[in-house]
Amino acid sequence: MDYKSLKTTAQKKKFWKENPLNGDISIEIDGFNEFKMKCLNDDSVVKELYWTKFNGWEKTSLTLWKNLLEKIESDSVILDVGAYSGIYSLIASSYENVKHIYAFDIQDNCINRLEENLQLNNISNASIVKAACSNSEDIIEFYYYEEEGIMSSVAGIVPKKMNNLKTSVNSIVLDSWSISESLKNIRLIKMDVEGAEQKTLLGMRDILRKDKPDILIEINDFKDVKKVKNIFPTGYKLYDINEKSLEIKKLGLFSKPSKDRNYFFSTKSKKELALIFEGTVS
Q: pTM of the prediction?
């Protein structure tokens, strides 16, 4: 069966169950430094990459991330907020101008796999933080579900119908946390927080204003995109990331986005981005 012909999540889950992928998997994306990720037939990112010959999962986002890292200034700090098993952190770890990477997650399954993946690749310039990044410091609830063969269950601090279980985690404000860690030069951020984008960004307004980092964000509901954009300081521009065509497209008030739910916020001009990104900037 051709994996790329599978259209639904149910079809893919059936395929994964019938074709288990276990072990330390070499991630061989064309143009990227090779690294390894552990999979116990439970990491959907690794399975998507492996079964599409490393060409079928967030190709545009990963390429943009790599290109930004190639041009990043010296002693830059990277934040991977909602790191899952850590592919964005692993990619960032090999660049000499990256001083340190901080990978945040709220689920023990992800934290444990992150630790394994960092050790598997002998990475010393990354730290894991178990916390929800929000706009308040507290102990808060997060929601999740459990399913065989699924390492992470789209957990988040925003309730969803599918998430029938809950537990608690510390929440932090990134502005305050970065001061406590004496961090400077936060230049690049990836954010995947399952509906908590606004709370996370409200907790990092000083970082946005002072450091002006480039940010890749997954926003599941397009109706929230405008609310998210309004939190950014003046000077930030919004781009839609098209994962199927290696293209990022500047979005205006009435622009129609792709269906990939991934967006890029940057203070860089289109001309600057065109010199950095190997795909199309429109």
A: 0.96
